[in-house]
Write a structure and sequence with these properties.
Distance between the termini: 39 Å
Radius of gyration: 16 Å
Oligomer: single chain
Order of helices and strands: HEHHEEHHH
């Protein structure tokens, strides 16, 4: 594992914990904090896209890598849509709020397991694990969280 991979993995873990923390807290769906979240998740998504592209240009991948990556990202959006449909939403003083529960956390964990599971296939080196799962983790998290947010709006 290269130093870039380690940085990406640590950064992805920090983002994942941050997303779970936000899931379990009551959050306003409008206002300044909601606008800041849009900026934060956009930056995370762009960084994830850059890391995915960087990895893709630096490493030779099998023909199945890119379709599996796209499938994984689409499944991440699917899990985001499911999470968005089960998030608790209510209004207080005319301001809508949302809060996840244990089911949303469980769906995050299952989604990440699927993302990783799709990468476990023989590569051209025969190592058995395609590192795209790690390289694309930030992109996966951003797309999944954005889809969840879109469903709740």
């Amino acid at each position: 594992m290269t130093s870039v991979s380690i940085v990406n993995l640590v950064l992805s873990a920090v983002v994942f914990v941050w997303l779970l923390y936000r899931q379990m807290r009551t959050q306003p769906m409008r206002g300044e904090r909601a606008r800041i979240w849009i900026i934060e998740i956009t930056v995370i998504g762009l960084l994830g896209l850059a890391m995915t592209i960087y990895y893709g240009t630096q490493h030779h991948s099998s023909l199945s890598t890119w379709p599996l990556l796209v499938l994984s990202l689409l499944l991440g959006m699917f899990f985001g849509a499911i999470r968005g449909s089960i998030v608790r939403i209510w209004s207080r003083n005319g301001i809508p709020y949302r809060k996840g529960d244990l089911r949303t956390v469980l769906l995050w964990v299952i989604g990440l397991a699927v993302h990783y599971g799709l990468s476990v296939s023989p590569t051209h080196h025969g190592s058995g694990v395609n590192q795209f799962a790690f390289a694309s983790l930030l992109l996966y998290l951003a797309l999944s969280a954005t889809t969840q947010r879109a469903v709740t709006l």
